[in-house]
Amino acid sequence: MALGRGLGELLGEVEFAYEKSTSIKNQGIKKIDVSLILPNPNQPRKIFDEEKLQELSESIKAHGLLQPIVVFENSDGTYTLVAGERRLRAHKLAQIEEIKAIIVDENELKLRELALIENIQRDDLNIIELAFCYAQLLNEHSITHEELSKKVFKSRTSITNTLRLLQLSPYVQQNLASDKISAGHAKTMLGLSVDEQKLVCDTIIGQKLSVREAEKLIKDLKEKDIEKPKKVQNLTKYDFNPLNDLVSKLKDDKLKVKLEKNYFKIEFNSQEDIEKISSYFNLQ
Q1: Distance between CA atoms of 129 and 144, rounded to whole angstroms?
Q2: Rounded to two decimals, what is the model's pTM?
Q3: Could you write out the three-class secondary structure of 189-249?
Q4: 22: buried, middle or exposed (CB in 10 Å: 19+, 13-18, 0-12)?
């Protein structure tokens, strides 16, 4: 299958394969009660545009459902959704009791794979949800980025770059998922600490920075971190002569004394040493 073919064509071929692979009893498209359909527990999409759902609902009211949903039949007579979350939600919004569906018989792992791939092919899945879809497919099926690229018809480079966004803090991911920042903005923050990411993210949103301006902000931030504050040295030279007699007496009592720059150090190794030191100062 060639890269770049439309989603409708891809799903059409998938559903044709479903019809060919199901039993005679389940062959073809059936109408089933919406109330009997359970959500897919592995559905990766978490955010749905209410306005677009309303538009789809109105379209279904006017023209009917053009693309059936795909479900898996459970032993208790209910169904689990495999593909078509938006279409099912739009049906419920339109208060239509039945929906056209293709019923398939797949194991749980295949169920997740079908749901993930179906979502990846959609153009309204936000980039963070897309990254999670990629990660789930890679982890659960033990495949390489190259193998995944062939499975979902995306370039290996695109998959790798998208997966890198999962290294960002949840705060940045949330702002990226809600389109408050772009993927270009997000990529500039890779490698920063969680606190730095929040600072940069808030600045991008608050000041409406471009990607280039965000890059400059991060560059300045890193250069500032590199510049360590220089320790101010005390250049004053003190005259220790007034302490000469005291130092001599301490040394005669076998106490270690050190005079350097701006401190006077006396070492002691016993309670007796402490008493000796105390007596010298008490004399004054």
Answers
A1: 19
A2: 0.44
A3: CCCCCHHHHHHHHHHHHHHCCCHHHHHHHHHHHHHHHHCCCCCCCCCCCCCCHHHHHHHHH
A4: middle
Mode of pairing for the β-strands spanning 98-104 and 69-73: parallel
Answer yes or no: 85 catalytic: yes
> 140-165 pLDDT, tens per residue?
666 788 888 888 888 899 999 999 99
pLDDT in tens, 54-106: 888 888 888 888 788 888 788 888 888 877 888 888 898 888 888 988 887 65
- Catalytic residue of the set 13, 50, 85, 129: 85
Residue with tokens 């208060």: 95
Residue tagged 């309303």 (tokens): 54
Q: What gap in Å lies between CA 168 and CA 92, rounded to an integer?
A: 36
Q: What is the CA radius of gyration of the chain?
A: 35
- Residues 6 or more apart from 128 whose CB is under 8 A from it? 165, 166, 173, 176, 177
Query: Residue 263 corresponds to which tokens in the numbers above?
Result: 């401190």
- Report CA 195 to chain centroid distance, whole Å: 15
H helices then E strands: how many in the chain? 13, 7
Closest CA to 43 of 100, 7, 81, 79: 81
Helix, strand, coil content of the chain in percent (nearest 5)? 55, 10, 30
